[in-house]
Amino acid sequence: MKSHLAAIAGALLLAAPSIAFAQAGSKGSVKVGVLLPLTGNTAWAGKTNRIAAAIAAEEVNAQDLAGGYKIELVVGDSQCEPRAAHDQAERLISQEKVQLLIGEWCSSASVAVAQVANDEKVPLLINISTADQIAGDSGPYAFQSSMQNRYSQEREAALLQKDFKFESVAIIVENNDFGLTFRKNMVALMQKAGKKVVLDVTQDRNDTNWYATITRIPASKPDLVIVSISAVQAANFVKQYAEAGITTPLFSDYPPPPRIFERQVGAQAGKIGLVRAAFFVKSDTNTPAQKEFVAKLEGRVQKELNEAHDVTYWDVATYDAVRLVADAIKRGGPQAAGYLKAMAVTKIDLVLGHYEFDEQRGSRPEGLNFVFIRTKPDGSIEVVE
Amino acid sequence: MFGQILINGLVLSGGYALVAVGLTLTFGVMRMVNFAEGQSVMIGAFIAYTTVPYFGYVGAIAAAMAVNAVLGVILERTAFRPFRGVELNGLIASMGMSIVLVNVAELVWGTTPRPFETIYNETSVNFGTVGISVQRLICVAASAAILLGLWWLVQYTSLGRKFRAVSEDHETASAMGIDVNQVSRLALVIGSMMAASAGALSGPVNMIAPDMGRTEMLNAFAAIILGGFGNVNGTILGALLIGMIQSIGAVYISNAYSSSISFGLLVLTLVFFPRGLVPERVDENV
Amino acid sequence: MSSRILLIAAFAVLAALPLIFGTFWINMVINALIFSLAVFSINLLTGFTGLLSFGQAGFVGIGAYTLGVLTKQGTPPLFAGLYGVLLAMLCGFLLGLPAARLKGHYLAIGTLGFGILIYQLLTNSVDITRGPMGLIGIPTGVIDKQTWYLVMLAVCLTLLAALAYIDRYSALGVILKMVRHDEIAAQASGINVFAVKLIAFTVSAGFAGLSGALFAAYARFLTPDLFNEQESFRYMMMAVVGGIGSPLGGFVASLVLTIIPEGLRALGEDNYRLLVYGTMVLFVLWFLPAGIGGLIERQRR
């Protein structure tokens, strides 16, 4: 009898370490919904974001970064559109039974998701939309890990004054939420800094003809032109700016993704020496964590989508978001109350930088990466700041 | 400034006119508005983009027109001929086709906007303080040439006479031996080819993407209202008017409301001229 | 008679659905029911009276934003909704004044232009509507989905009954149809065609405004993009697939065309799904020229 007991005790002792290592996933799995645009005109971004999220989830599960829980990602195609995002959020919550949410890309879609999250009491981490105060305005269940517009605009204004000599400025925006808040904030910041706003134009975002607007620039003689125009429209604008032969320095706020943008209008952007803000750019000045992520993601995208890819900020933000979620689970568990408390006191270094949240549940901008990049005449990018 | 506004207006007008003329031809002959016209422009742009490496720019335009000719035949058979007499259904069918076309394009070319580069993009001509790319000037010149060709076709050829006959009264035309189906098919073929040229010419001015073509189509509608449905000359003038007004309005009024300018104009016109500025020659069935 | 019993039975079954299906599908159906009100507006305007409108989304937007903006300022939701419907009707009346003199395709494009103007107004009046930033957190209270579902069913049933009554039993129905078939004869028989068209525009705008107000109250968020011309096209498609003169067909079509794309997600988060949707619309048009409503009519005989 005793020898049997001894044997069992001995076996247990030997097994103890492996039992400890088997902790990962031992508390069960947590379903995390991820809302991304997989169809529609931002799908080119969403597809790689999904892979970034998958990489993050795999790492979390392999290295047990979620305090014993396994993360299971469930993806919803929100098409960057509020109605679709609303419906997908509902689907993920009621059908797929996700406990936590990450998303979305476009601000209007995020607003819709934040609505659902607060109604259904499912914690949401807004990882990409940068509109001001989405988390703060919608309710206690939403957090925003992306740097909000007003913070990036403050940094831009500061950097602009440092890097450019100018007394007068032209502000050109398109009428979406980015452009409109940019205009409002920038006009105020410029006036506070004693600069004169000589041209102030808002253009319909479906209007691809920038020629008329560009015509007004030389007439008003600004020292610097700053614009907030997104994605395709930014490419259209830069192209037409270059063709019009305007030599006034041009700064663009919303970062059309480095390299994708260069592939579209690299030559023209280089010709005019376009400077723009970016949250993240692959370059030699990247931190080791960033370099590691870049290598991982690009390799995976090559394998799965069979295309060469340049890591974008959105990929990084999605990866970081999954890691943030895991970290909060580790400290507070996956149930809403504990999770939200844990998220509020997050202090962690991830690929994009250091994450902490303020009382309005938006991330503090100080620790997060932010750079100015200039396109050189040969189409390559250099980090200016 | 004036010169720039003029050129800008002409570029816009050229694009709108090419699209509007196609719509007006289709309407005249089939009495139905083609809601897939914007997609014809898009497909034209993409075909040209894809074939430039093989045939050069001019060849690419020709290739786009050829492919769109086929598209026109398909559209006529699927979305228009089955619905003679039930025109509303035809209209909706063309909407269905437009959904199909957009998604096929997204499957084939993906949704990322692409730059359609031609050598003409790189050179600019100076016009006062602002330069204009040669591509834009080509747009204007080529549009004018094509429209002139079409005008000549409608005025002076037997095909043109058939178009006008069917537009006025397709039953009588048929009784007089005109093959109405063939004329309809040709109307759609020519309309789609016009749209292809619009896409291929204006594509290089901006990025191309599967969701392009919608604004061109909407502005083309405005042009048709001004110029008269089925009236090719009027439509061209209507497009010219819309383009110029938009160009001037963008500089002097406001850019945020740019679509409002053309549609406000349209609504205003209809308030005072319920039959359009150029009333149709087809009389009511009194 | 038996068809009426069938109808009531069908509604009873529909009412019981929440017990079987989860909140996601209920949400879908509620959206479909809200759409169907906009489709009814087209049935009334185009199906009964023969007037084309490609700008209904404008009225939906007016109803929605009125409710949204007013409730955020403290107006009780029911009043805000009422004002939304009334404002939409006023706009319908104003549109009707010039539109009643337009024919066919001019009317179609004219109403399209009107719809686009409303959309641009909603987008650019940032001080009132917050434009592209969107209106969040419309305070109509979080009512659970089952209740919303039953409310919407009741509203749809009521309006369907009203439309059926107009269609079959009332003098108004006869007048509307006379105007559709032959305006000149109608005028000759002493009908004030202009007034009839005005009424049609006004009432149908009211239906559309109601759809918008209910949407705002349900979803509690709004962006101007929800009311652009693509949405107007969508309502038109649903109406035609349902059979332009058949509100019941329109009701079924709203359900079918909202739920099927969702169900098609099984084909992957892809363009294939939307491709199938477009092809479906085409097939219905080719093989069911009177739409789903026509099919229902045939079964009836």
Average pLDDT of chain B, rounded to a whole number, is 85
Structural class by secondary-structure content of chain A: alpha/beta
Number of helices of chain A: 13
- Residue windows where pLDDT falls under 50 for at least 5 positions of chain B: 282-286
Q: What is the helix fraction of residues of chain A, given as a range?
A: 40-55%
Give the biggest sheet of chain B. Answer: 2 strands, antiparallel
Within the CATH hierarchy, at the fold level, what is the topology of the largest domain in chain A?
Rossmann fold
Q: Round the mean pLDDT of chain A to the nearest integer and report it.
A: 85
Structure summary, number of beta strands of chain B:
4
Number of domains of chain A: 2
Q: Into how many domains do the coordinates of chain B divide?
A: 1
Briefly note the CATH topology name of chain B: ABC transporter involved in vitamin B12 uptake, BtuC
Helix percent of chain B reads over 70%
Q: Evaluate the radius of gyration of chain B.
A: 18 Å
Count up the helices of chain B.
11
Gist of the model:
The complex is a heterotrimer of chains A (385), B (286) and C (301). Chain A has 385 residues and is of the alpha/beta class.
List keywords for this structure.
heterotrimer, A: 385 residues, alpha/beta, Rossmann fold, 2 domains, seven-stranded mixed beta sheet, five-stranded parallel beta sheet, 13 helices, 14 strands, 17% strand, C: 301 residues, mainly alpha, 14 helices, 0% strand, globular
